[in-house]
Every structure is written in structure tokens, then in C-alpha cells.
Specification:
Strand order of the largest sheet: 6-5-4-3-7-11-16
CATH class of the largest domain: Alpha Beta
CATH topology of the largest domain: Rossmann fold
Largest sheet: 7 strands, mixed
Distance between the termini: 28 Å
Number of domains: 2
Number of strands: 21
């Protein structure tokens, strides 16, 4: 027992070259190289509890996209079911993008407060005869193999995921997530009680073909009295979200472009009329005492190309040329009936991509322009696979130059260290460590066999690798 030596060891971790949170939780530390060139990774045991919140855009024309998503959801479910130990202890909730349009009470589909961040559980899909939530349930749950639904996971998701296209056209994708989780400064809706678990991973998945237009609840951005190009806010259309929510080359997208114009790379206007992306990132991370428990993903339009153009107004009898943002991508294919042509397209997801990128390695971005979302959902499920799977040693590390020490508490201020050897071979039954076969998410999985310190001693493992 040597408390002093452990204190020094934790100090070294503060200068660690790498931190990992896969299956075991890292003790923290920046990801830059220490002065001695060593790689130090500190790992703690983690749970297999995962709360997944899907935000589904339910604005105009999104019904077709929702069907494609539901059809491909088995790829997500099957990836999770194939994890070591089987399906994690899951909560899966669904929330819409509708949260009203500021202080305006009469815009179609934009009733004040919209869906208020309440989880959707109504049986609206064609798969409900094969799988549905039990009566009284507000989200999907499967804990230790005990589901709160009939049928399989993909069918019950398809049963409640078809939200339709009657929602607000000024989508509040990010704000709806914040409202559903109670991350916006107010308690989460009472209907969502029990969904968010303190020690669980949280994965948030956005599914949308337009950029985020989250505004404060009392915003006047959607003022209906502003109708023409010369009015203060311009015409009441989605372009307001671009003009007052983006900066392209330091300037707002022009209200009266001369014709098609490529504005290059644009960013969120963090001082504009929309809620700052950075603030929502911070608030979401603060839901957890360990921000690395938060995983995010988006299936949305890519942020570039960002082209503005003009076209006929979308109101009766008014042929004024109004501005609009062109789709950043489009994929055309044979529709689900086998004869008609269908397509998916997406507007530049500037704010959404910026939100995903703010989570670093814990963020995944996939294009909404696809004829199937199977590959995108598989990639997003692999994010959970990576989190719950074995810890991953960096590819640059030579395992032959690593030392593994397991540390546990014997009492207040008392620690014990146990140094473990590398396993001799696959038949080694002692306490030892090794590098497992490479996987799709990790080239050098770290495996600790038969940990030598009991869970009650709050053990953590430090892997120190020489340059």
C-alpha cells in the first residue's frame, strides 16, 4: 500500500498522451503527449446502460424519409444485438423537431411549444401488428433481456417512428433534444420520467433534411407581419433561418442574391437570432458528470456546397423572386413501390454539422441523401459498440512496451497497486492482459483477464507505454 506512489501515478495521467473510454471509463486527462513521450491511459469499469434519443424531423415531406429510416432500423438493432454480452440495457426514445415558432401562435403546424419535447409513443407505423410498446410505456426499454414491448426491436421502433409531416416547418432539432432531456434549464417533461439514467451512456441521433432553426421561445424571428423582401425579416419562409442563423465569409447569406451564388463554407452565427450551438453543446455535455458518456450522431445534409438562388415565391399569386438555399445533396432512386422515382435531398446542415463536430471522436455525421439508411445506422450503432467494447490502445502503441497496473481502494486514502503480466497465451487462466483481435472500431483491443481487484474496491487500470 503506497498512497504517495498512486498520487504520483495520477499526476502522470494528467499529462497523458491518450485517454480511452471503451468498456472501461478513462480517468480523464488531455490527449496530448507527455514530456517523457509516454502514453498513459487510465481506465475504469463502465456499465452497459445506454439511453438513445432519436430526434426525427416531422416537417413537410418527411414521411417518406421516416419510412426509409424505419425500414433500415434492423441494421442498428442487429449491430447492438451482436455485441459481446448481447443487446445493451437500452432505453430508446423518439422526439420530434416541432417546438413552435417563437411567440407566433398561428403558423401552420407551429402551435406554441409544439410537441414540447415529449417522447412519442403512439402506434403510427405499419409494423405495429408485429411489435408494439406495452400499454402505458412512453419509450422502448430492454433491460437484462426483459423488453417492455412485443415483437422485435426493429418492429417496435417502426411502430412509433412514423411521426408524419405535419410538424412545424421552422425545425428546432437541437432545442427539441434539449427540451426532451431537461438540458435547457427547465425540468424535462413529466411524461419523459425514467428515460434518462444517471450512469448510462447517452446517444442523441438527429434525423433531418434541413438545418437547425432553434430559437428562444419568445423569439420574434418568425413574425408573420414581415412579408416582403423589404420588410425587416423578409418573407416568412425557411430562408430566415439561414439569413439570421449562418455566417458565410463573416456575412449573413444575402436576402437578394443576383442569381445562383456559391457562398463557400458557412458557420453558425453564434451572436444571431438563433440559440448558439456552442451553448447547447455545453449544456448537453453537462447532463453527465463525465461528458465522455455523451455520444451524438446526425443523418442530415452536408454543410457544403452552400449555394443561394432566387425563385418564385411560395404564396398564391405572388411571383416575386425570393431567396432560397439549394440542396447540398440529392440521391434519386426507384421508389418503395418499385415503379415510381423517389429521391432524398438535404439542405446544408451548417449548425448540425458544427454541433456534431464539437463532440470530437464522440460525434458521427452521415448524409441524409441515400436510398437506404442501413449503412448510416450501422455506423451510428458502432459508436455504441466502440463505447461498450474493450478499451482500444492507439495504433501507434507497441504493446510489448506497455506496463499494466490495476489500482483499488482499501479504505479512505489507502490504495493498493497490482502489476499484471501480459498473458502467455490464450490458455493463460491467471490475471493477465493482452491485445485481442482487431475489430472494425479498434486495431488493438485491450483485454484484462480475471481482474485482480474486486469491484467494491473501485478499481481502475493504468496502461503506461514507452515511446
Amino acid at each position: 500500500m503506497n498512497p504517495a506512489s498512486v498520487a504520483v501515478g495520477l499526476g502522470a495521467v494528467a499529462l497523458a498522451a491518450c485517454s480511452s473510454r471503451h468498456g472501461l471509463t478513462p480517468d480523464g486527462g488531455p490527449k496530448d503527449a507527455g514530456s517523457d513521450g509516454q502514453t498513459v491511459i487510465t481506465l475504469r469499469p463502465s456499465s452497459r446502460d445506454v439511453d438513445v434519443l432519436f430526434m426525427l424531423d416531422n416537417s413537410s415531406n418527411m414521411s417518406f424519409y421516416q419510412v426509409l429510416l424505419a425500414d433500415a432500423f434492423s441494421s442498428y438493432a442487429n449491430t447492438l444485438a451482436a455485441l459481446p454480452g448481447g443487446l445493451p440495457n437500452l432505453h430508446i426514445g423518439i422526439v420530434s423537431s416541432s417546438l413552435g415558432a417563437g411567440r407566433e401562435p398561428a403558423i401552420d403546424g407551429c402551435a406554441p411549444g409544439g410537441d414540447q419535447g415529449i417522447l412519442h409513443a403512439k402506434p403510427t407505423g405499419s409494423t405495429c401488428t408485429r411489435g408494439s410498446l406495452n400499454p402505458g410505456e412512453s419509450f422502448i426499454a430492454n433491460i437484462d433481456g426483459q423488453p417492455n414491448y412485443t415483437g422485435d426491436l426493429a418492429d417496435v421502433f417502426g411502430c412509433i417512428a412514423l411521426l408524419g409531416s405535419g410538424g412545424c416547418g421552422f425545425e428546432h432539432q437541437l432545442a427539441s433534444v434539449m427540451r426532451a432531456l431537461g438540458a435547457d434549464g427547465a425540468p424535462a417533461p413529466a411524461e419523459n420520467a425514467g428515460f434518462l439514467r444517471a450512469g448510462a451512456y447517452l446517444q442523441v441521433v438527429l434525423f433531418t433534411n434541413e438545418d437547425d432553426c432553434s430559437a428562444p421561445p419568445d423569439s420574434d424571428l418568425f413574425d408573420e407581419s414581415s412579408m416582403t423582401l423589404t420588410d425587416p425579416l423578409g418573407p416568412l419562409q425557411s430562408y430566415r433561418c439561414n439569413e439570421f442563423g449562418h455566417l458565410c465569409g463573416g456575412k449573413a447569406p444575402p436576402r437578394m442574391p443576383p442569381g445562383e451564388a456559391d457562398l463557400g463554407t458557412c458557420v453558425s452565427n453564434e451572436n444571431g437570432r438563433l440559440l448558439p450551438v456552442g451553448g447547447m453543446v455545453t449544456a448537453l455535455k453537462n447532463i453527465k458528470s463525465d461528458p465522455s458518456l455523451v455520444l451524438v450522431a446526425a443523418i442530415a445534409g452536408p454543410p457544403t456546397p452552400y449555394k443561394v438562388n432566387v425563385g418564385p415565391a411560395q404564396v398564391k399569386g405572388d411571383m416575386t423572386l425570393w431567396p432560397y438555399v439549394e440542396s447540398a445533396c440529392r440521391v434519386q432512386f426507384t421508389g418503395p413501390d418499385g415503379t415510381s422515382d423517389g429521391f432524398t435531398d438535404g439542405d446544408p446542415g451548417v449548425r448540425i454539422k458544427q454541433w456534431v463536430d464539437a463532440f470530437g471522436d464522440n460525434g458521427v455525421f452521415q448524409s441524409v441523401c441515400a436510398d437506404s439508411y442501413a449503412a448510416a445506422l450501422t455506423r451510428i450503432a458502432q459508436q455504441i459498440e466502440k463505447a461498450l467494447g474493450p478499451p482500444c490502445l492507439p495504433a501507434t502503441v507497441d504493446p510489448n512496451k506497455c506496463t499494466v497496473v490495476e489500482t483499488g481502494t482499501d479504505g479512505p486514502g489507502l490504495f493498493s497497486n497490482v502489476t499484471h503480466p501480459r498473458c502467455k497465451d490464450a490458455s493463460d487462466t491467471g490475471t493477465c492482459w493482452d491485445v485481442g483481435p482487431s475489430t472494425a472500431t479498434c486495431s488493438q483491443p485491450f483485454v484484462l483477464r480475471n481482474p485482480g481487484i474486486p469491484p467494491g474496491a473501485n478499481p481502475f487500470t493504468t496502461v503506461t507505454c514507452a515511446p
